[in-house]
Amino acid sequence: MKRLKNFTPKILVVGDLMIDHYLWGSCERISPEAPVQVVDISKETTVLGGAGNVINNLNALGAKVSVSSVIGDDDNGVELINMLNAIDVDSSNLIVQKGRNTSKKSRIIAVSQQILRYDKESKNEIDSESVRKIIDLISSEISSYDIVILSDYGKGVLTPELCQGVISLANKNNVKVLVDPKGSDFSKYKGAYLLTPNKKEAILATNINIKDEGSLKEALVKLKNEVDLDISLITLSEGGIATYDSEVKKFPTVAKEVFDVTGAGDTVIASIAFALSAGKSIEETASFANLAAGVVVGKIGSATVTLEEIEEYEASLHKSTSDAHIKSFEDIAQIVNRCRASGKKVVFTNGCFDILHVGHVKYLQEAKSFGDVLIVGLNSDESVSRLKGPTRPVNIAPDRAYILAALEAVDFVVPFEQDTPHELIKMIKPDTLVKGGDYKGKDVVGTEFAGELKLVDFVNGKSTTKTIQKIQGK
Question: Annotation-wise, does 201 bind a ligand?
């Protein structure tokens, strides 16, 4: 994950751009003119849709994105360009075709229910002149891109002529082309590096009913051979991702809760492009894409995901190394803000945790039960020496942090230099502050910044001091 955080790939997205337009309101009556609901509009929002959702996902991950497409000479086209410029996406490769309607899908929503959708768009194929202009624009800069994505929403931009032109250019310059396909005929994508069809799309394209491991392999092999792919890939919804180069490999999904799968395919291809650009293997890439999808399906509506969200999600699954759970003050501040935004309850406790024993583990497990995210403040070596004496700690801070972070109950560990975690608690402002039962009737540092204080009794006879005495034969 650290390597991905320090990487800014340059990615070109070619495909069907559109505007998703939402009219939000309330409905309390039926029209006297016709048996239809009357919606009083209170809010209006727009977001990039179609290939624009792939762009949004790449942008959220930290990529530098350029886009090439064909739009109409209309107000929607101007609005779309302004939306791209607002998120610093290079739109210089957009072509305006006279007489074409820029896609805009408008949805009327009342009391969280979609009442009506109306579309204004052109779905016929773009003309040969527009294809030639796109190829000419791309040809002069193709070698500067790390990856090219073809995002096909079946609105006429990705014609066979354009797909083959882009793929040919990219292959000559050793640039991988990834395709989110549409329809049942994948021949126009021939020569791409990989495609990302879902199971239903793969069944239509191969005419193979994917119902078990054997038919899955048969479909993967057929796609690879017939479309001349480097890697064959099929997304399997809750089944994860399956790939084939010389053998079939399956990467299970890691979604905990599914609220909405809208846009999950856009997240998958964006995350695959991002990881491949950073030189990740297909195995690492598929696992990364599964994590990204796991985050995004837990959100409502077409959503994006950041590297930080993926890292936190991986940590919550305890599939990451302990290093990923050890955070600085600056890191934990951002994490806490995201926890608050998602409605999670933050719990904080602290200690030296010198020689970890069963008393520590049970204490931390009970602390975690008070909320959703447990943050543990860890005294530095100097701090422990000042509190416990010159012979302590037995284990140095990096070792203590690593072992703590490996515990299932612990979400994040934050080392601090001071004798008390006062400044850390002030910054975190936990919903629940947890301390040992020996603090009953005493002042507890940081309570003024916490929502509540919980005291947890220690396990009798279990302590680091007693462990050391036993080792010393005392």
Answer: yes
